[in-house]
Amino acid sequence: MKALTIKQKRKLRRVSVERAPRLSVIRPTKLGFRISVRLHDGQTPDDYLRVLDKLSHAWKVHSVRLASWKPGKVTLVATLADPLRQVSVPVLSDGLLRVRVGLLDTGAPFTIDFRAVPHWLSVGATQSGKSNLANALIVGLAPQPVALVGFDLKGGVEFTLYEARMSALATERSECAVLLADLVGIIRDRMAVCRQYRVKNIWRLPEHVRPVPIVVLVDEVAELFLMADPKSEKEEVAAVATRLLRIAQLGRAFGIYLKVCGQRVGSDLGPGVTALRAQLTGRICHMVNDEETAKMALGDMDSGALAAARKISPAEPGTAIVIGSEGRWHRMRSVHVTEEQAEAAAATYAALAPTWADLMLGVRPADDLDAGEVNDFSDADTDSDAEVYV
Q1: What are the phi and psi torsion angles at 37 (to 5°)?
Q2: Given 25, 57, 79, which residue is the final one in a domain?
Q3: How far apart are CA 12 and CA 190, in angstroms?
Q4: Is 369 exposed, middle or buried (0-12, 13-18, 19+ CB in 10 A)?
Q5: Which of 50, 147, 256, 366 would staple 251 via disulfide (CB 3.0–4.6 Å)?
Q6: Do 301 and 217 share a domain, yes or no?
Q7: What is the mean pLDDT of residues 220-226?
Q8: What confidence category does residue 378 fall into, taking pLDDT thresholds of 50, 70 and 90?
Q9: 193: part of which helix (H) or strand (E)?
């Protein structure tokens, strides 16, 4: 083996030995301060990610985040106090299919924008703030020219209060299967219109033929996949899983958007859930009871986000880890919105809800899906970690 030169030995020592960081000027921010750090030879941004907690203790601040990086330099942002301790920003309808629902740990508002991120997965245990976030979303969407469709597998107790503003509400899995088939039929119809006008999505259609956007709210998604009797329920679950997945895959271009919620979302529910999860690129993870659900929500995107989600305390209702359009995670806390406020908004804007008959006008329902279109997920192997998390 060729001996190392003196220059190579010196460089190796510089890489392997801890060295003091080279700090730039500290710049104050609204919530703390920002500072850039020049990296030594051999250092990467991951080296700073691993010691953010140590830095926050050393600097005696609430938290330190790695805000950005470029070759040879990282930028750290320190927050002196927790900006999520009390969230008082108003819920705001912030443009078509945009709703400001809370506050980020950066002090910026958190907005769910279905045009930017079409499909969202929201998980959380009881009393974690998951329903509160749904209330905020309904308050923000109610005054907008959109159709709301609900899937409430708790027998309707979650969404019945807001039924006046909804164009359709399914409370049993058999009803969900039919309603999902109708939505697939709507997608097919909108495809034909887009082909006719030679455009790729409904937003390029002339305004007079552009269909109304549809936001689909799914509560307790696990209930769609659970089977008490596999022999009798296998076919129905497979049809529901396939139709929901097709809507997730095709819905964005044709104005159909998903927000899927659940207390528990795990690979034990079958690969249909894993395939659906891959299409739901917006993630919101409140406090959860089991690590598997947190992994399903965040594990395929950012290990740091997963670790942060497991630290959410029961004393912090409404707090969640979110990943949105920029692909980076943040702590977020939603505005407290009562059921009474959401119910009042639904009643006030009930006249804006298109009837389901109007939405289905001229649409051929997709009840009769070809046999080849329904994937049988129930017999697939769900024990492989690689299949779930890659």
Answers
A1: -130, 125
A2: 79
A3: 62
A4: middle
A5: 256
A6: yes
A7: 86
A8: very low
A9: helix 173-197
CATH number, position 170: 3.40.50.300
Q: How confident is the model at residue 388 (pLDDT cuts 50, 70, 90)?
A: very low
Residues 33 and 118 in one domain: no
**Backbone CA torsion sign across 216, 217, 221, 227:** negative
Torsion of CA 38, 40, 43, 46, to 10 degrees: -20
The answer to whether residues 61 and 115 belong to one domain is: no
Per the domain annotation, does 333 fall within a domain? yes
Number of domains in the chain: 2
Q: Is there a domain that residue 4 lies in?
A: no
Domain-terminating residue out of 24, 46, 79: 79
Between vectors from CA 355 to CA 353 and to CA 359, what angle results, nearest 5°? 105
Residues 262 and 288 in one domain: yes
What SS3 state is found at 6?
helix
* Range in 39-43, 95-99, 281-285, 385-389 the model is least confident about: 385-389
Q: What is the pLDDT of residues 170-219, one digit of tens each?
A: 999 999 999 999 999 999 999 999 999 999 999 999 999 999 999 999 99
Q: How far is CA 268 from the centre of its chain?
A: 20
Is pTM beyond 0.85 here? no
**Per-residue confidence (pLDDT) for residue 62, from 0 to 100:** 82
Q: Where are the beta strands (DSSP E) in 296-341?
A: 319-323, 329-334
Range of the domain at 33: 15-79
